[in-house]
Design a protein that fits this description.
Layout: H1 44-71, E1 78-85, E2 93-101, E3 104-112, H2 116-134, H3 140-154, E4 160-168, E5 173-179, E6 185-187, E7 191-193, E8 211-215, E9 221-225, H4 242-250, H5 257-272, E10 280-287, H6 292-304, H7 306-316, H8 325-343, H9 345-360
Antiparallel strand pairs: 1-10, 2-3, 3-4, 4-5, 5-8, 6-7, 6-9, 9-10
Helix pairs in contact: 2-3, 6-7, 6-9, 8-9
Length: 363
Amino acid sequence: MYPLPKPKHKSTQPRCGSLLSHEAGVTLRRPRKRVVAPVPTLTPEQQRRNAEIEQELQLARDLQQGLLLEAAPRLPGWELAAVSLPARDLGGDLYDFLDLGAGIQGIMIGDVSGKGLSAALRMAVARTVFRHEARRADQPGPTLAEVNRGVLREIPQGMVTMFYLCLDTKQGLLRMANAGHTFPLFINSTVTEVELSGLPLGVDGDSDYEEATASVQPGETLFLYTDGVLEAENTEGEIYTYERLQALIEANVHLKPRAIVSLLLRELRTWSEGSQNDDVTMVILRRRLTNLDAELRSVASDVLGFERANTFWVEHVTLNPNADAHAWIAALPDLLKIAQTRFGRGLARELNQQLRLALEDYR
């Protein structure tokens, strides 16, 4: 992979002091009793209306999440994971995938200013404008320039950040442009941030967007995300920061996209103690290894852990390392019976699912 230079980051972590370190002589006061205002009683009509609003919001959220889930494609030779978690019932984050033909896949991630219903409406408009323009242009830079003008027309009081790339799925080549969005990460043995700048959409109608190119080698991963990841707050008001994200991923560079998503969501929930003050969205793309045996072994490591997977592979996998996908599919039932005996039904089921998904790309 040949990424752009990595920028230097300044730490955004505030210094925290302890009350025990303060000088003596502080007068302690007994806390005042909290007065809890009585909850007003709603009339039957108000209760009915509230129930209708709640039902409509839930329907809107289901529709929004459905649009995002429907967008995620299966790309032969690649692993893909995408998730979007709104901070409220409705969110302003978005991602999209477009088949541009000839093995070229368009991938976009964005963040609309604001939260809730107004942000969700702007998100829907931004996605519609993007889809229209992306089908007309074959380059990320000109596409974002046209989307920018469309956003200015259709969302005059909103701002949108957006990162858009065109991926040659056969060659692993990327062309990218950025409109003020969080920089993506390339993951191999290390984590490298791609510094590619541009004004957010909806700011200046004359904005042009610079393009950059890169190559994704087998086994390497591209990580796109919104700023809700970095700005997740703990109970002290301290944000998660890029430094923590980088350290977490560098300690787990072997993980596949789905495992990275699960790990990071658990990390953010622990950091924020279950609260969420901003939408969180991730799109993670990994190019599969060219050697089938090595790829399947890495899948097993992801599910079982490295040591257990390595022992299982050495003791029970008797296939030639150069065996094709059809031979592996024929051998899977016996292997999974052994896996169920050793690791239990749940892990064996997950291993079966992930191995079969991988094998589909090598048939």
